[in-house]
Design a protein that fits this description.
Blueprint (H helix, E strand, L loop, with lengths): L6 E2 L4 E2 L4 E2 L4 E2 L4 E2 L4 E2 L4 E2 L4 E2 L4 E2 L4 E2 L4 E2 L3 E3 L4 E2 L4 E2 L18 E3 L4 E2 L4 E2 L4 E2 L4 E2 L4 E2 L7 E5 L2 E6 L8
Parallel strand pairs: 1-4, 2-5, 3-6, 4-7, 5-8, 6-9, 7-10, 8-11, 9-12, 10-13, 12-15, 13-16, 14-17, 15-18, 16-19, 17-20, 19-21
Antiparallel strand pairs: 21-22
């Protein structure tokens, strides 16, 4: 039997029908749900949940304590800081099943999201954009834009390396 070309810590749960790319590391206490696809050379930190049918691109880094719910699309080379929160329903109720109402959130190539940011569903974050730590993002972000605050607003521009320009 051939050994996988990725690492999964023994405390993590990987459901059936999951694709994990070569060179990826999945650390302690993670759960990767059925139908998820994780690209090559990704680093999935401790206590991360990847929801059903979520697609994670190559070179993505997801820090500790993040839940990437169904409806979130993560392109390549994205950084998601510790304890970032994603939503997938705008008006949730415990007593109403709204699984058919998931709204897509798209993180394009090279995006960085700082620790403890909340990303409300239905938003697109453009290529190489940066969302600051602790922000609450409720609007679309353009390519190379810097957004932060509560609610997050555009504060400037960044280059591909994340330097404010």
């Amino acid at each position: 039997m051939q050994q996988p070309k990725y690492f999964v810590h023994s405390s993590s749960v990987i459901d059936e029908n999951v694709e994990i790319g070569e060179g990826t590391a999945i650390w302690h206490f993670c759960h990767i749900s059925a139908g998820a696809r994780i690209g090559k050379n990704c680093n999935i930190g401790q206590n991360v949940f990847i929801g059903k049918n979520v697609n994670i691109g190559d070179g993505v880094k997801i820090q500790n304590n993040v839940s990437v719910y169904e409806g979130v699309v993560v392109e390549q080379d994205v950084f998601i800081g510790p304890s970032v929160v994603f939503t997938n329903v705008l008006t949730p109720r415990a007593f109403i099943n709204r699984k058919g109402n998931y709204q897509q959130t798209l993180l394009k190539k090279g995006v960085s999201i700082g620790a403890n940011a909340t990303i409300v569903c239905g938003t697109t974050i453009g290529n190489y954009a940066l969302v600051g730590a602790g922000s609450v993002l409720t609007k679309n972000v353009g390519d190379f834009e810097l957004w932060y605050g509560n609610p997050a607003t555009k504060q400037g521009q960044v280059d591909e390396e994340g330097n404010v320009v």
